[in-house]
Amino acid sequence: MENRSFWFSTELSLDPFFIPHRGKYAIFFLGLTIYFIGIFCNLTLLALIILQRNLHKPMYFILFSLPLNDLIGITAMLPKVLSDIVMGTNKVSYPLCVLQAFLLHMYGGGVLFILAAMAFDRYVAICMPLRYSSLMTPRVVICIISLVWGLDFVLIVSIFSLQTRLPRCKFTILNVFCDNPSLLKLTCGGNTTINNVMGLFNTAAMQLISVTVQVYSYVKILIACLVTRKSEAKTKAIYTCVAQLVIFFIFEIVGTFTILSHRFKNVSADLQKTMGMLIFIVPPLLNPIVYGLNSSEIRNTLLRVFKINKINNLKS
């Protein structure tokens, strides 16, 4: 009964940024600009994959999940934070807080699994080019995409489902957005050992699966590039993989800085909150740009679309 009444309790309090009144509008418009740039870049990549027939390939069907996941991450976090800054509020209902935390954790796990799937696709394409079409059939691609999202969903649900057994009596989220650790700190009088162990296990499992698949794939690709005598094939293979490696390292570097910011006591609370936000801002902002610049097919398709639109505008 206590848990049920807590679930329907009207509001939780977030721990807001300390921002002078004169600076909040500047920060709001800066954040809003960043948000719209991220939305535009990711929607452009999604639209290209959907509308351009030359991109209807297994590689790009798998890539489709990356901008979609980035949209989930940046939208689940940034609009709420910006709204709180400009409105001067710090309240959120418990169900919406859980939903935000769930989506943010889905985003984090999704990045790792999607990059692993993309690395596997490149491994098959470069190391087994003659068998690529027979191996990466539409059915296999659908299975890979379903496995990526399904495994991510199961692991995140398993973390959040453990919270239902714990009593809660606190009403303050010690962050500017909701996440699983912050929700866990609302409990009182319950044993959170299982939750902590499960959270660490799931994080380790995600990292282990993703890194193992990527390391295996890229080592095989590197060997194939060293063996082949075709410089054009070697160059194409390298450029194809560079974008995915850059995206992976961006995510890992930002994630590492986020974790480290919470391990040093002399780091200010506002800086810790800012570092925590970066993991949901930087990758969604840079991923479509990095991938677009490094993938000649996407870049050429985008330029062709702009050229056709320009010609049509001139004719009209």
Describe what this molecule looks like in 3D.
With 316 residues, this protein is mainly α. The protein has one domain: Up-down Bundle (Rhopdopsin 7-helix transmembrane proteins), CATH 1.20.1070.10. It has twelve helices and three strands. Strands 2-1-3 form a three-stranded mixed beta sheet. α2 (24-51) packs antiparallel against α4 (65-87), α4 runs antiparallel to α11 and α9 (193-227) runs antiparallel to α10 (231-261). The mean pLDDT is 85.
Quick take:
This protein is an all-alpha fold and 316 residues long.
Instruction: Please state roughly what percent of the residues sit in beta strands, choosing from under 5%, 5-15%, 15-25%, 25-35%, 35-45% or over 45%.
Output: under 5%
- The computed structural class is mainly alpha
Radius of gyration over all CA atoms, rounded: 22 Å
Please report the number of helical segments.
12
> How many runs of DSSP E, i.e. beta strands?
3
CATH superfamily: Rhodopsin 7-helix transmembrane proteins
The CATH topology label is: Rhopdopsin 7-helix transmembrane proteins
Strand order of the largest sheet: 2-1-3
For the sheet with most strands, the description reads:
3 strands, mixed
The gross shape turns out to be: globular
Q: Regions with pLDDT < 50 over 5+ consecutive residues?
A: none
Mean pLDDT: 85
